[in-house]
Write a structure and sequence with these properties.
With about 160 residues, the chain is an all-alpha fold. Helices cover about 65% and strands about 0% of the residues. The protein contains 6 helices and no strands.
């Protein structure tokens, strides 16, 4: 029987975490920093899209569109995002975050189309305003993807058989 001085330096643990496979223990990453990044980026994007974007478009567009009308329009456009905000704030439910990821992919696609159309006939300032919106949405989708990878799997749920 080998004595403990012959073994390599490794911490001896007796908690339940030691019963998990080594691969799971090594790849477990903290969820809280990713949730915080997602939340901060989400709130910045909501504020930018609702207030800053209409003001900047009104300033930089030669036709000077109405700021209040723009805020109202983007407010209507953001209704699904406002409904999704409590899910993003909690950041715990993989199912709801997956739905949120699909919704933000739709927003990202629409923002990409707007950016693409602005490339043909708008000023550089308008292109930068729309480009920042696109980049914020791209960051949100990246944080959502990484958070979903870190949350517990949705497939490993053990269900009890039905009793008849």
């Amino acid at each position: 029987m080998p004595n403990h001085s012959d073994l390599p330096d490794s911490p001896i643990t007796t908690n339940s975490a030691s019963t998990e496979p080594a691969a799971n223990r090594e790849t477990a990453k903290p969820i809280t920093p990713m949730r915080q990044r997602l939340l901060v980026t989400w709130l910045i994007w909501l504020g930018y899209r609702l207030l800053v974007l209409p003001v900047l478009i009104s300033v930089f567009n030669p036709s000077n569109p109405d700021i209040v009308g723009g805020i109202f329009w983007y407010g209507l456009w953001l209704l699904p995002a406002f409904i999704l905000t409590p899910v993003i704030v909690r950041g715990r439910s993989p199912y709801l975050l997956l739905v949120g990821s699909m919704l933000t992919l739709v927003y990202l696609g629409a923002s990409g189309v707007v950016l693409f159309t602005r490339l043909y006939g708008s000023s550089a300032a308008e292109i930068l305003v729309c480009g920042l919106d696109f980049l914020l949405l791209l960051l949100i989708n990246t944080w959502l993807f990484l958070l979903l990878k870190r949350l517990p799997s949705m497939n490993n749920v053990v269900k009890q058989p039905r009793s008849r």
